[in-house]
Amino acid sequence: MEKKRIVLLSHNDLLGGAAIVTYRLMKALRDLGHEADMLVFNKTCDNPHVHQLGTRPVRGMRFLQERAGIILRNDFNRRDLFKISTASTGMNIHRHPLVKSADAIFANWINQSTVSLREMQRICDMGKPVIWTMHDMWCMTGICHHAYGCSNYHGQCGECPYLGRKASPDDLSHKVWRKKKELYDNTDIKFVAVSNWVKECAQKSSLLRDKDISVIHNAFPSDMFRTFSDKPFTMETRSRFRHIIAFGAAKLDDPVKGLPYAIEALNILMDESPDVAAGSIAVFFGQTDREDLFQKLRFPHIACGTINDHTVLHQLLVQTKVILSTSLYETLGGTLIEGMSAGAVPVSFGEGGQTDIIDHKVTGYIAEYRNPRDVAKGIKWALTSNIDREKQHETIRQRFNANNIALKYLSLI
User: Pick from 282, 264, 266: which is nearest to 274 by CA?
Assistant: First the structure.
């Protein structure tokens, strides 16, 4: 394939899962010999191929403008302010020199005033291939990033649960739905889902059910999470335990992460299978502001806070027997991929992209949704399994290889 000039649009460069995988895709495209650059709202790295949009005052003004418009229409609900986006404001993208010279535009997570719907129309009007990757559900709903139990997006949205007393058939969610419908009807955007679950949700939506949606997984640098480490993960009580059960999240107390199900499952395992539980410890990593979070957990455990250094995380996962997730919804599940790449056995619910990672009772265990007893059964199965750690790593390496994923994106141009 001849060399292509590709611009990847993203709100962040390295902050958040969607930003990180977009950055990895840019690097994979460059490794294949293409000219790939990122345009971002917030830049934190020093990579010269990542470019920040606009000036700080302009970015701040656009950001506040969109958030103010939301809070005026959501009954002043600050708790859910960042669970929805309207794309009412954004940066001037189509005039950027890199966009003008690009052969293709890859849009990723571009909310919070990065790209407005009106600007997306201008970009599409340039006649270049536009590929939009769905890292959450926003493209298929009116305004929310995750619909959870709401099925209004199967229709034309409206009566949005996030708008409180301001919800109505013609509320903010329906108005933005209409704008998305107009954009999608008048452009040839190619949509990519990061998992089969995201695609299934999109096919139920009124906005995308008639679109041709490709499934391309996120790139994962498996070489960073091998099955061995030069230095072991250390903690005061480590010498007393044979097996580590690891559970990680950016925010452990986020209700979506389903931590109470994990706690109940570990308690069931402790009470009903003490012989299996003996010699195991649960290690929780991630941010939390709640001191009482593990008050009900009787299983031996330690909370080690946020692990920002991937080398330290790797050292933990290399010694982990079970990587546990009880998330109620996951578009793919990065922690499960990291743990499995390091050789751990994943145990998880299957409401999301986890089924693209785990082959049930082959490489891991898919538990019945919201059933802590089946989660306990899965942990027991994983602890007593004899799954080869190198085979776990090889499964991840083949399934999420960065170069292969970059080639799949290039095939859409």
Answer: 266
Summarize the confidence of residues 117-128 as an average pLDDT.
97
Residues of 247-269 as b/e, b for ≥16 C-beta within 10 angstroms? bbbeebeeeebbbebbbbbbbbb
Show the domain range for 234. Answer: 222-399
Spatial separation of the C-alpha atoms in residues 348 and 295, rounded to whole Å? 23
Q: What pTM was computed for the model? A: 0.91
Q: Which residue has the tokens 């079970």?
A: 322
CATH assignment at residue 257? 3.40.50.2000
Cα–Cα distance measured from residue 248 to residue 330, given in angstroms and rounded to the nearest whole number = 13
Distance (Å, rounded) from C-alpha 174 to C-alpha 58? 28
Q: What is the dihedral of CA 120, 141, 249, 217, to 10 degrees?
A: -60
Residue 59 tokens, joined: 């970015």
Instruction: Kindly indicate the confidence band of residue 236, based on its pLDDT and cuts at 50, 70 and 90.
Output: low
DSSP state of 107: E
Specify whether the CB–CB gap between 335 and 310 falls below 8 A.
Answer: no
Output the pLDDT for position 234: 67
Q: Note whether 281 and 324 are within 8 A (CB).
A: no
Residue type for position 330: E
Structure tokens at 359: 């082959």
Answer whether residue 52 shows pLDDT above 60. Answer: yes
Evaluate whether residue 335 is within a structural domain: yes
